Predict the structure.
Amino acid sequence: MTINLELATKPLKNGSYPVFIRISEKSVTCRVGTGVYLRNKEEWDQKKQTVRRANPRCVKMNDTLSILLERARTIERESRNEGRKPDPPYLKMKLQDPAHGEMGLIEYMETYAKGLESIANRKKYDSVINHLRGFMGKRGDIPLMSLCEEDIAGFIEYLKKLPNQRFKGKTLDPNTVLKDFKVIRAALNGAVAKGILKKNPAENIHLKENVKRQRSMTPEEITKITDPVLEKLQDYVTERMLRARDAFVFAYYAAGMRIQDVILLRWENIKGANIHYTQQKTGKEMFHKIPKPALDILEKYREDSSGPRDFVFGYLDSSDPFTRFGNEKSVMSEAMQKKLYNKINSVEVGINTQLRKLADVAGIEPFSFHAARRGLAETMLNATKDQRAVQYALNHNDSSTTDRYLRNNKQSTIIDRALNETFSDGSREERARDLIEQLRNLGYSRTQIKKMI
């Protein structure tokens, strides 16, 4: 971490130049006002970090700057001695003086987001920050130290009334509101962990997830979309649709690979009849056999000229500057990571568009790429009856994540068994009560259970 003094590059409206304490660590930088303002740039000596004699108040100003700089370094040193890992936002909060104002929620969220490694996570924060700006409007940022539960609750109500960009005439989906809330809660938990806040003002707010049926692909549907007849319907089925189909089916058989991993799959990741790659989302390595249907798809795309660094499905060009690093994000610059992230996002949208068109031709319910992962989970559970095996295949850290993937499967099994028992010998009322209780344990509301039954 570096702590030094810095003169603003641009003047304020009154023409003066403020001097800041600049706190930097890795890619995160915070600036704290010192209350010292110079008439022009020439009055500042950046090398010596002092106000030049050209300013008649230079002695007093330098004394003030020296005290504030030493205070910042003392706070950092004492924090480390206490076992804390102080970062720029923490030091900024400690240095804030009421005369210079407080860090606001938006400012804190922006600083917190800069410290996140995942660009995808930073994008989530960008979206929430934009919503916060809309919520606060003309009143400006809310001081972080005075943030209360009512402010968070007000923001949630604001989100609930926002228009839905995908479905005109509707408001934001409750699960989107929940995601935004989780982002703020996580950032505020970070403030508590750093000692910036004593208590998270969002900790007593609880929003329920709107449980929806998640689309998954059945073996029967896999058979339909791989029917050779489809490839002969050239008036309806394009090469782009077939390539998206092949990538999807490969992901299904290759232990439910995520779409980002399939897009970035190179021939060097294929080791004979096995696959070895690093998951983009988790950073974990995966190594397992490739079932024959997936091997057949690989052979379809393998060419004599295919090199180890070439991409299997050709959605990316290995000559692009942001792909020469492979999947090693740690050696990519920030700008390069953003380019790769945006490119993958664009490819994802295109693939899912083609899959929806393919579903229409095949006469099945529309699906997206993630249906391969969920479909694999359900098919594997039905075949093995071993949820732990499913968890390992999907590489889930927590079994609760696998539970969510298999909720549809478990729900159907419970309902089918309960209905068979209900309308056979025995007490219908008692069996119906058991059915309702089991569905409640899966997290379904009273209204949702009524619709199911």
Remarks:
- The radius of gyration is 28 Å.
- The longest strand covers residues 28-38.
- Residues 43 and 54 are 6 Å apart (CA to CA).
- The chain has four domains: 2-100, 105-193, 219-402, 406-452.
